[in-house]
Write a sequence for this structure.
C-alpha cells in the first residue's frame, strides 16, 4: 500500500515478472495494475482492481489499509486486468456496489457474470459524494475500449484515467522520476493499444483540458505529478505531424531481400533520411510499434514464400493495418524465385491505412545492377516526399 494524498492510497499490485501482454506485447519493464482506495468521511471507494493472478496483493493491501467495508467499486474499464478481481472484492465486501457506466456494466456482466443488482449506473459528468470527497465521472471512450471512463477526485485534483496515459512499468517509486524512461514506456503503451484511436483521443484531451489536474493516476505504471508531461506527449503522438523517419521492416530467407534492404537503407541515410530497420524474425514488435507512432513511411520487404508473402511480413502488414499509424506512404519491396502474389497479398492486408502505396519493387533472384536503379528511384521518391512534408 502506498499513500498518494491524505486518505488516498494505491492498493494494487506490481507485476515485476510479466513479460507479455495480450499474448503479443513484450513488457521489457514488467507492469503494474494500480487500484486506488479513497477513504471519504462517509463512504469508501475502490477505483479499479487488479489482474486476477494478483488478487492476493490487492486483498492484503486492503487489509493493511484497515478497510472493513467498501461502499463503491468504481470500474473505469471492463478489461480483466482492472476488473477481473471485482468478483473477489465483492465476495469479501458484499455490501459494495459496482459504480460504472451502462456499457461497462453490460461488459462486466458478460465477462465475469456480476449480478445485475450489484451495479449503480452513472452518467457522464455525474458526481458521487464520499462525504468530504467527491468523485466525478468523465466518459473517455475508446482509450481503448468503447466503455472506458476516467474518475476525477475533485478535492485532491486527481484524475484516475485507467489505461489512458498508462505505461507498462514495474517500479517501487509511485511517481514518475525518470522521465525519459517513462516517456519511452508510455509511447510503447500508446503505440500498442491507443494509436488506432487517435480521433477519440483528440476529443478526450479536449474534454479534460479545463480540469484542474494535480496528479494523473493511471492504472498501469507510475503516476504523473506533472500532468503536462504526459498530456503534451499524447498531443504530439496524436498530431498529424510525422518525423523524418522511415521504418524498414524486412524478412529475408537467402539474403536477396536483405541486400535490397541494405542498399535502400544506405541510400536513404546518405540523403539524410532517418531509418529504423527491423529484422521481423527477431524484432521486438513493441519497439516496431513505437517507431510507427511518428514515422513518415514504412517499407515492407519480403521474399516470396510458397507463392505469397513470407508469414513474418504478413504479420507485420497485419500489425501496421491494425495499429493505424499516421504514416503518409508505404512501399513493398522483395524478391522472388519463380513467381507469386506477394505484393497483392500484402497490399490486400493494408486496407485500414490512408497511406499512399508507392510503386513496388520486386526482383527475380539476387539483386543485380539494373535492380539497384529501381531502389535509387524509390529512395529519391521518399526524399521528395520528406521535402514536401518539410521534414527534410
Ligand atoms: Fe489495462 Fe485495457 O486494460
Amino acid at each position: 500500500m502506498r499513500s498518494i494524498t491524505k486518505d488516498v492510497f494505491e492498493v494494487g499490485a506490481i507485476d515485476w515478472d510479466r513479460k507479455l501482454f495480450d499474448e503479443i506485447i513484450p513488457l521489457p519493464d514488467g507492469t503494474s495494475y494500480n487500484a486506488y482506495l479513497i477513504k471519504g468521511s462517509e463512504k469508501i471507494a475502490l477505483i479499479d482492481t487488479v489482474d486476477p493472478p494478483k488478487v492476493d496483493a490487492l486483498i492484503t493491501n486492503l487489509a493493511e489499509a484497515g478497510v472493513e467495508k467498501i461502499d463503491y467499486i468504481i470500474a473505469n474499464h471492463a478489461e480483466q486486468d482492472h476488473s477481473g478481481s471485482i468478483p473477489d472484492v465483492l465476495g469479501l465486501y458484499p455490501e459494495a456496489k459496482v459504480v460504472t457506466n451502462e456499457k461497462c456494466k453490460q461488459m462486466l456482466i458478460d465477462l465475469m457474470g456480476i449480478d445485475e443488482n450489484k451495479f449503480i449506473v452513472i452518467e457522464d459528468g455525474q458526481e458521487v459524494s464520499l462525504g468530504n470527497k467527491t468523485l466525478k465521472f468523465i466518459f473517455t471512450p475508446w482509450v481503448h475500449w468503447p466503455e472506458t471512463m476516467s474518475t476525477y477526485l475533485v478535492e485532491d485534483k486527481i484524475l484516475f484515467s485507467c489505461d489512458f496515459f498508462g505505461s507498462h512499468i514495474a517500479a517501487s517509486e509511485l511517481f514518475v522520476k525518470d522521465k525519459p524512461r517513462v516517456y519511452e514506456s508510455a509511447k510503447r503503451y500508446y503505440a500498442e493499444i491507443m494509436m488506432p484511436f487517435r480521433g477519440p483521443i483528440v476529443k478526450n484531451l479536449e474534454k479534460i483540458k479545463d480540469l484542474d489536474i494535480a496528479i494523473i493516476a493511471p492504472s498501469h505504471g507510475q503516476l504523473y505529478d506533472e500532468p503536462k508531461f504526459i498530456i503534451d506527449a499524447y498531443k504530439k503522438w496524436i498530431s498529424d505531424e510525422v518525423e523524418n523517419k522511415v521504418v524498414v521492416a524486412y524478412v529475408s530467407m537467402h539474403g536477396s531481400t536483405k541486400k535490397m534492404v541494405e542498399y535502400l537503407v544506405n541510400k536513404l541515410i546518405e540523403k539524410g533520411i532517418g531509418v529504423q530497420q527491423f529484422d521481423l524474425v527477431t524484432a521486438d514488435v513493441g519497439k516496431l510499434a513505437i517507431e510507427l507512432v511518428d514515422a513518415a513511411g514504412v517499407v515492407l520487404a519480403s521474399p516470396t514464400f510458397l507463392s505469397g508473402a513470407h508469414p513474418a511480413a504478413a504479420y507485420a502488414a497485419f500489425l501496421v493495418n491494425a495499429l493505424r499509424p499516421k504514416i503518409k506512404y508505404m512501399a513493398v519491396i522483395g524478391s522472388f524465385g519463380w513467381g507469386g502474389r506477394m505484393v497483392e497479398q500484402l497490399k490486400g492486408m493494408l486496407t485500414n491505412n490512408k497511406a499512399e502505396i508507392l510503386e513496388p519493387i520486386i526482383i527475380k533472384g539476387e539483386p543485380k545492377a539494373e535492380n539497384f536503379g529501381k531502389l535509387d528511384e524509390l529512395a529519391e521518391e521518399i526524399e521528395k516526399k520528406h521535402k514536401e512534408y518539410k521534414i527534410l
Observations:
- The chain has twelve helices and 23 strands.
